[in-house]
Amino acid sequence: MARKPPEQVAKTPLVMVHGFGGGVGLWIRNLDALSRSRPVYAFDLLGFGRSSRPHFSSDSTEAEEQFVNSIEQWREAVGLEHMILLGHSLGGYLATSYAIQYPSRVSHLILVDPWGFPEQPQPQTDQSLGKEVIKRPGPPRWVKAVASVLSHFNPLAVIRAAGPWGPGLVNRFRLDFKRRYEDLFDDDTVTQYIYHCNAQSPSGEVGFRAMSEGLGWSKRPMLHRVHLLPPQMPLTILYGAQSWVSSSSGEDVAQIRNQSHTKVELINDAAHHVYADQPHLFNEAVENICNTVD
């Protein structure tokens, strides 16, 4: 999907990469606003949405490479020389991996509540209480539900196994999405969209499962590799102030890249899906970032 301003302006295009289980339709609150001043592109990640669904390797490194290679193949097909690359959640992880491998193509890297940066914490024993304590944000109910079956099945297998009850299951566990778009749709359009993005044979989620430990952690934490980004590449990380994804990883990235342009911003009153929770603040922040490029 491509949106361009009415007048042809020679500005660096913005490319938006969605997160796990999503698709281009979830950017509905952002595309019009962001495309007023520059070309904006969005695509369904390989194995998700309406993209093709190839076999993914069960090896974490190979699965990641498949995702990244598909992004580069998309760029070549579209003919973009340079881009401002934005990724949300899983898309942020893959955008970072892409920027490490193809740095000459990325003018500015924008990560939105990125997944897969920190290491999975080990249980710490509180000596005074004799209890195990893990300090981490509490994920929402749907994340816990998916994580509970992830070790045995593909993450979204339960939706397909539910058959005709699948849409109702999505509606129940992702009622938050329906609320985020309720001023645009007064029916089940959004939850139906999410269902149909994930009702086909599993592919991208197989790749994700190969890359992940549980649901919240990566087998290859990006904090171990973020130093491979070129020092001259600007990086901005946006977090929802109420997100279950901790912004502490962003501060760690800024510390690792302390000689580079790295900025961490919090969007107030926003959870993990920043772009839908506070679209006006998100769009304004992204536009300001893009304007630093050209």
TrEMBL record:
Q: Which Gene3D superfamilies match?
A: alpha/beta hydrolase (3.40.50.1820)
Origin, by domain of life? Eukaryota
User: What reaction(s) does this enzyme catalyze?
Assistant: N-hexadecanoyl-1-(9Z-octadecenoyl)-sn-glycero-3-phosphoethanolamine + H2O = N-hexadecanoyl-sn-glycero-3-phosphoethanolamine + (9Z)-octadecenoate + H(+); N-eicosanoyl-1-(9Z-octadecenoyl)-sn-glycero-3-phosphoethanolamine + H2O = N-eicosanoyl-sn-glycero-3-phosphoethanolamine + (9Z)-octadecenoate + H(+); N,1-di-(9Z-octadecenoyl)-sn-glycero-3-phosphoethanolamine + H2O = N-(9Z-octadecenoyl)-sn-glycero-3-phosphoethanolamine + (9Z)-octadecenoate + H(+); N-(5Z,8Z,11Z,14Z-eicosatetraenoyl)-1-(9Z-octadecenoyl)-sn-glycero-3-phosphoethanolamine + H2O = N-(5Z,8Z,11Z,14Z-eicosatetraenoyl)-sn-glycero-3-phosphoethanolamine + (9Z)-octadecenoate + H(+)
| Manganese found in the keyword field | no
Gene Ontology molecular-function annotations: lysophosphatidic acid acyltransferase activity; phosphatidylcholine lysophospholipase activity
**Mind listing the UniProt keywords for this protein, alphabetically?**
Hydrolase, Lipid degradation, Lipid metabolism
The cellular component terms of Gene Ontology attached to this UniProt record, alphabetical and capped at eight, are: lipid droplet; mitochondrion
The GO biological-process annotations, alphabetized, read as: lipid catabolic process; lipid homeostasis; phosphatidic acid biosynthetic process
AB hydrolase-1 domain: residues covered:
13-277
- Give the matching Pfam families: Abhydrolase_1
Q: What does this protein do?
A: Lysophospholipase selective for N-acyl phosphatidylethanolamine (NAPE). Contributes to the biosynthesis of N-acyl ethanolamines, including the endocannabinoid anandamide by hydrolyzing the sn-1 and sn-2 acyl chains from N-acyl phosphatidylethanolamine (NAPE) generating glycerophospho-N-acyl ethanolamine (GP-NAE), an intermediate for N-acyl ethanolamine biosynthesis. Hydrolyzes substrates bearing saturated, monounsaturated, polyunsaturated N-acyl chains.
- Family indicated by similarity: Belongs to the peptidase S33 family. ABHD4/ABHD5 subfamily.
Q: Which protein are we looking at?
A: (Lyso)-N-acylphosphatidylethanolamine lipase
Q: Species name for this entry?
A: Knipowitschia caucasica (Caucasian dwarf goby)
